[in-house]
Automatic annotation (TrEMBL):
The keyword Transmembrane helix applies. The chain crosses the membrane at residues 6-23. PANTHER family: PHOSPHODIESTERASE YAEI, TRANSMEMBRANE PROTEIN WITH METALLOPHOSPHOESTERASE DOMAIN-RELATED. InterPro entries: Calcineurin-like_PHP (IPR004843), Metallo-depent_PP-like (IPR029052), Metallophosphoesterase_sf (IPR051158). One of its GO terms (biological process) is lipid A biosynthetic process. GO terms for cellular component: membrane. Keywords: Hydrolase, Membrane, Metal-binding, Transmembrane, Transmembrane helix. Residues 37-191 form the Calcineurin-like phosphoesterase domain. GO terms for molecular function: metal ion binding; UDP-2,3-diacylglucosamine hydrolase activity. This is Metallophosphoesterase.
Length: 252
């Protein structure tokens, strides 16, 4: 009986807990001709996270990215600010320029400025329906689509047309409703399904991309590059099945 219980616990750990701790670094080449290395982070979910700040710090030091892009879902509760702080400080100490957009879970924080200010204090600039010129390319930050805080037209207002443009938004499904030209979109939100059991996600509508089998990795969609991260933390349940946590290194 005891051995049976131990066996069940070991199987549970191997299949459901280990994937949340066994961080995968996805290295992706996207031929934009920019000669830039981007570290893409997404879906921290500090309330349900088993990746330490030290591990992320080691990755940043080893990879030496030119820029860090974070595509939302940092925290869900105002009380989680203390959990977010060690990760924000790591990004600040790296001295790598870091930009972010908010995700749907961040808007659960009331007021949401608690999350925004915590990031700003550590030199992480949150873009909310706006763009900035980073010399080699234009970075566009579109606010969260799920909670209807996005404004695509405002995000692209008077954007330079002669440069490549990289779009950050939390939910990649937004790409289905965008007519504006851009080069690359980086997103998260879908967690690579997180619990990747066949037919499980068919029971609930997760957006048009999921229905097309687009929920992780690099795609060319409607003539534009789209990269979807599987995320660092977990949504709702602190488990994963068949999907490891991810940090993406995008060579542009």
């Amino acid at each position: 009986m005891l051995y049976g219980v131990i066996g069940v616990l070991l199987l549970w750990y191997m299949f459901f807990i280990l994937p949340t701790q066994w961080l995968k670094i996805e290295r992706v080449h996207i031929p934009l001709g920019l000669n830039k290395k981007v570290l893409h982070l997404s879906d921290l979910h500090v309330e349900r996270l088993r990746i330490s700040p030290k591990k992320i710090n080691r990755i940043i030091k080893r990879e030496k990215p030119d820029i860090i892009l974070f595509t939302g879902d940092f925290m869900e509760r105002a009380s989680s600010k203390s959990l977010l702080e060690p990760y924000s400080k790591i990004l600040k100490q790296s001295a790598v320029p870091c930009y972010a957009v908010l995700g749907n879970k961040d808007y659960s924080v009331q007021p949401v400025e608690i999350c925004i200010n915590s990031l700003a204090e550590n030199k992480i600039q949150v873009l909310r329906n706006e763009w900035i010129d980073l010399e080699d390319f234009v970075l566009v930050g579109i606010d969260d689509y799920c909670t209807n805080h996005h404004n695509v037209n405002l995000s692209f207002h008077h954007i330079p047309k002669e440069k490549p443009s990289i779009v950050m938004c939390h939910d990649p499904n937004l790409i289905e409703y965008m007519d504006q030209p851009f080069t690359l979109m980086v997103s998260g939100h879908l967690h690579g399904k997180q619990i990747n059991i066949p037919f499980l996600f068919g029971a609930k509508f997760q957006g048009p991309l999921m229905n097309q089998g687009i929920y992780k990795a690099l795609h060319i969609h409607k003539g534009r590059y789209l990269y979807i991260s599987k995320g660092l933390g977990q949504s709702r349940y602190n488990i994963r099945f068949g999907v490891r946590s991810e940090v993406s290194v995008l060579n542009l």
